[in-house]
Here is the input.
Amino acid sequence: MKLDERKSLKVAIHTFGCQMNEYDGEVAAGILGAAGFEIAGEGDADVILMNTCSVREHAEERVFSRLGMLGKVKRTRPELIVGLMGCMVEEHREKLFKRFHQLDLMVGTRNIKELPSLIEEVRRRRQQVARIKQDGISIEYTDLVRRTSKLHAWLPIMTGCDKVCTFCIVPVTRGGEVSMPAREVYREASRLVGEGVKWITLLGQNVNSYRGEGVAFPQLLELLCQIDRLERISFTTSHPSDATEELFQTIARNPKISRRFHLPLQSGSDRILKRMKRLHTYEDYKKKVNRLRELAPDVSLTTDIIVGFSGEAEEDYEATKRALAEVRYDGAYIYKYSVRPTTPAAKLTDDVPYEVKEERNQELLRLQKEIEREKNRSWLGRQVGVFVEGRSPKRSDQLLGRTLQEKKVVFDGAQDLVGTFQTVTLLDIKNETFVGALESVCVP
Ligand code: SAH
Ligand code: F3S
Here is the structure.
């Protein structure tokens, strides 16, 4: 295919799932854009790429039902190219070609760079094409990355996971841990800052176990804090058993490090934690939280909870409920357990009925919402530093900022404050967003 012919090809990328996928989607858009493709909405696309997630059954079902729909579209538009990238490719591999004849392309998480030539191959050969490399690191640092924000960037520092939480498919889809060398992370962070980025979120399935050529995660954070004009550093996700005193001290010492700490608990019952192979008890977890809060009292803590895991009896669930009430998180993602094939837990019986999972889920969501409401109210009247991200999506005459705890605040202010840090007083809360008033404008 000649370049001018390719120019007219429109590609739509639909991303499901986690931040790592968002980053991969931005890389794919950048690489395709540089190769002459046009990134477009699904309505008039010649190529539809679904960037997929396998973590829960529901995420996969959404992709399967879209594939079904696209099969119908292809009856009237046979030239439409349908492709998959992301975790479902790693999990199902070429098997999906048999089940979905409408599927033309499967691209592994380590093959994103090859997207332009693979699309070309589908067009040329008119057959199903798969490229799924299994070894090496699946991170692409490239200046082609097409970020959705000018000021904020995702920065993956490692891929895969060496933990064996029995419910989780990530070690299957993303493989074992591989860390980027620290000097490459530093170089990429500096490049991003050179492009105007002020806030970076470091990504990894378990960033606490990062080890890039002998540099551990707290040292990496220290290193990145030294980059001038990099104003804020966030990271996700942490595993409780690898969250150390040294990490907590590093957070407490460095005001550039975000005060939002995401520490998945999964269950408040030791019996269930053991069945999940989480490697910690609730007591271990609580000790760590107490220590973190002692060292950095302004940290806002968020978590992940699974309800209805195999064997979860009423008393186990009650223990999780007590844990939520005791830890008092600033936010919690609460999921119903769904069996993932090939995980160790797939051999256990999925014995909690769906309605019970749903009830437990709803009850915890209500409890958590109440806690968040109370915690947020305690911030009212305080003056806080916010990073001004842009205009409020709901009211264009207002700005949207994020506190160091990553809570959203809207307030009146001029457009030229976007990308700066300002001080606002928190006055009210509407739909979980603070309404603030700008104090005297701080000129950077
Ligand atoms: N360390 C990872 C975890 C990935 S999965 C990270 O970067 O966030 C994200 C969350 O999904 C997990 O913490 C867990 O709460 C939930 N999850 C994983 N597998 C699940 C399953 N089989 N059913 C329901 N929820 C699950
Ligand atoms: Fe999954 Fe546990 Fe790793 S939740 S990503 S196996 S830390």
Residues 161, 163, 165, 168, 170-171, 205-206, 239 surround FE3-S4 cluster (ligand 2) (CB under 6 Å). The first strand starts at residue 10 and ends at 15.
